[in-house]
Phospholipid-transporting ATPase
Amino acid sequence: MRTGRKKKLHFSKIYSFKCGKGGFEDDHSQIGGPGFSRVVYCNEPDGLEASFRQYATNYVRSTKYTAATFLPKSLFEQFRRVANFYFLVTGILSFTSLAPYSAVSAIIPLIIVIGATMIKEGIEDWQRKQQDIEMNSRKVKVHEGNGVFKQTEWKNLKVGDIVKVEKDEFFPADLVLLSSSYEDAVCYVETMNLDGETNLKLKQALEVTSTLNDEQDLGDFRAVVKCEDPNANLYSFVGTMQFEEQQFPLSPQQLLLRDSKLRNTDYIYGAVIFTGHDTKVIQNSTDPPSKRSKIEKKMDKVIYFLFGVLFLMAFIGSVYFGVVTRDDIEGGHRRCYLIPISLYVSIEIVKVLQSIFINQDVLMYYEETDKPAHARTSNLNEELGQVDTILSDKTGTLTCNSMEFIKCSIAGTAYGYGFTEVERSLAKRTGSPLIVKGKDIVEHPVDSPKKSFVKGFNFDDERIVNGNWVNEQHSDVVQKFFRLLAVCHTAIPDVDENTGKVLYEAESPDEAAFVIAARELGFEFFKRTQTSVSVKELNPVSGKRVERSYKLLNVLEFNSTRKRMSVIVRDEEGKLLLLCKGADSVMFERLAENGRDYEEETREHVNEYADAGLRTLILAYRELNEDEYEVFDKRFSEAKNSVSADREALIDDVTEEIEKDLILLGATAVEDKLQQGVPECIDKLAQAGIKIWVLTGDKMETAINIGYACSLLRQGMKQITITLDNQEIKALEKEGEKDAIAKASKQSVLQQITQGKALVAKSSSEAFALIIDGKSLAYALDDDVKNLFLELAIGCASVICCRSSPKQKALVTRLVKEGTKKTTLAIGDGANDVGMLQEADIGIGISGVEGMQAVMSSDIAIAQFRFLERLLLVHGHWCYRRISTMICYFFYKNVTFGFTVFLYEAYASFSGQPAYNDWFLSLYNVFFTSLPVIALGVFDQDVSARFCLKFPLLYQEGVQNVLFSWRRIIGWMLNGVCSAIIIFFLCIRALDPQAFNKDGKIADYQILGATMYTCVVWVVNCQMALAISYFTLIQHVFIWGGIALWYLFLLAYGAMPPSISTTAYRVFVESLAPTPSFYIVTIFVVISALVPYFVYNAIQMRFFPMYHGMIQWIRHEGRCEDPEYCNMVRQRSIRATTVGFTARSLARTNPLEDISQNPR
């Protein structure tokens, strides 16, 4: 790109009415009032007046803690866990005479657990700190005085500084544009980090400052800006600039936002208006939240329940003790082992190991960018298995930020053998070959020679390429078609001086795709001046490439109301041509009677393209006569220069009259290129019963097209569109009464929501899609409307929110999270998604092309959207099941152990005589039963990864929380009580009062305690073996090794002197090992204690299997490859209102699945 002052092109004249220098429509009457009190002294950041105003520095912090707050906040986080607080209280009590245990044994484990967790939190926050340091240390040129600019770090900028930002640099703060390298002070800005849009925005400085082009010019520049106070609204800005004793109104057209990027412009000069946490992008962010999983929160309730059980046991024991032992001299102490501190340690270890497995999964590794999955926090692993709603960004998350020209229809003939992700997915799903124009793409993918890849172009048809279009029946129409693509646009060519290759900077990716397609097919747009467009094209007569120049007279730009764009040019023969491209909804009605020759065929092709998820535009033209154009040009100039409030309406009226009586040429079809595997991923997630919302900053048309492309929308699905783009609101906007506009807008949104709810309630079998724009969303999120909006959204199969600001994304996420009380997952890749990621229960960052802001604010980072399928359906399900089963088992084994202690104390009239040796009590949770639980939490699989993906409804076990319901938790506890009763009473009855060994010696309490303990260790470990679905060598070692370790410990500990081993002295060698009854009792008690669980499990598995049980039966009976049986099971996972290409396929083949008739 050439630099400096050589750029004389007046872009404001190309963008004929977008950047016209007419009136400003913002209301500036409030400047100086409440909410509009900011005063900025430009180029005098250290002046006397500026020093009185304490504005924020430009230092930005995204960390959860600071050095000062880490200790108190982190300790608060730890003691929010009920069990930790309980152990803190018992630790304090251990220093009193009331405690039956030593202070060291109570405090040391607590310090280790809390310390380890705090270190983990500190490391995670340190990573955020490093990201902050990198951002705050970026460099920018700032004016130091006398026209001298010097590099400084972003964090040093002050309000009022003048900065120079160069091409492809990010803006360091919110700036008012003063001038640029272009003569008329325009610049291109990419706002991808703010709103996710890839198209470039055009900004233009005030005319009075546009002459400040050189560094020296800024030496004496002084101005005062008065504007609105810091706020989160990205799309509004109200202010005035006082310069040379005159007031000039400022609008969003002059505001450059932090974190957006300067593109296609060599440099700009700007004045810093908002810094640091006052900038609009930071105002849209939220503080990093403290997230806890639902299982962890429920675990607190379980512990409260156990507190209740403990209190009841203590109360009953105390009353019983008081009555029965009222004549005894001394009382005893009771200890409790129902709530083990090792539970939290074990869960932390398991979660860290689970995170390592997620990070190491090669099937979630993206080779192209060398990025594996990265679980940035391990706190939320099990939440991945309970997601009810996914809220996704669009650009860069679902799509690749690129468009490809793939098909077209010209003169009623369809061209292009390319196929889309949607078509490929449908073919794969149905098992049929994908045939396009007689070519079997699936079975013969190399029918056509491999072309070199050109970004934005994926067109293949030998009838058109290499100049073969001259042989077509309607070659004249083909020529006009591609000539229109090469001329009707606002793209800027950039010729690479080394290769001679022409590159394009366009306002939108699809516009770039059109000019690239025209270039590749022989119509190369290579030069633009202020008044002309030059194209190299093939002369069909001579067969040679010739240069043709078109005089550019007017550009009638695209907007969401007009839905079309036109240029008026004069060709070299002197003909006046109006070239127009636009949406089918507005173009067909503008065709002339003699211009509809190919209308029927074109409509049919457009419907086919739309069904394949392609974005379509209709191309048409007409010749103008001189008189007609002269009248139009005069009226158009008047409207363009109007300063009235209805300026745009006047322009629309004028253009409406000229854009009529068109002659149809054909239609284009471009693919908004989805990331690889997105439709398949969405289909699987939909089959799993997960609802998917798309929250995007893009226009409604773009979002709807993507909805079709990834099968969130389909032909025949009823669309409920909530928008304020109606005549009543527009009329009020012209009058400018803000209160009246707000009241009417809210009423309109409320009415549309109510109508939508009635529509959904009327038909339970149809699939509905809700589409709402940003303006409407602002009112839908009001306190008195949001619940109605949520009810409507929940009743729809898919929801798309367009033109959403980052704050709105976060608010919608909060509404869904708090309104449904179910787990929400947000996924995005840009800085505009940070608030949404932090607000959701789980935030997934895509490590894509939009920088690292989303990743640094996320809980888990992945490289592609498609990895979400494996992350949720496989790892999510496994982690949920493992953690749930692990916690239930933990309570089981501690209830089993604790109740044997309680029963013995009750049997001994609470005399204080312990059932077990002190070291038996201390090491139960540490050595003999802890490792099998950790192995369960890390390795167990109820169903393999392949079956998790084959039968997605398995995921609903987590969403419905069936594995950690109160019924299941209490069931496991009752199992523990049952096991404890069986162990205690069988041991008591078997060992007392008859002889224990051949010498006639009866079993005393040491032998009884050791035998009971042996039975407990065997029972809880064998119970683990029964509960496990997937054995590994590690689990065998831990389960049977834990039992073996008990016998080894009994030998070693019993060999120690009696002063150390106390009641365990030689008890195994002398008393237990030589006695057959010890082994008989152990075997008999273990089998008896396990029978209840085994019987219950067998009956449930055989007659009332859960969904994972059904899949286990399929695997067990060898019916994995029986398509009919598998399909019968899988059908339970497809709901009538689901989305995805499976639902699209069913709607095609079975009309009963979708009552609304397909319009095709």
Notes: The chain has a mean pLDDT of 81. The chain is about 45% helix and 15% strand. The longest strand covers residues 399-410.
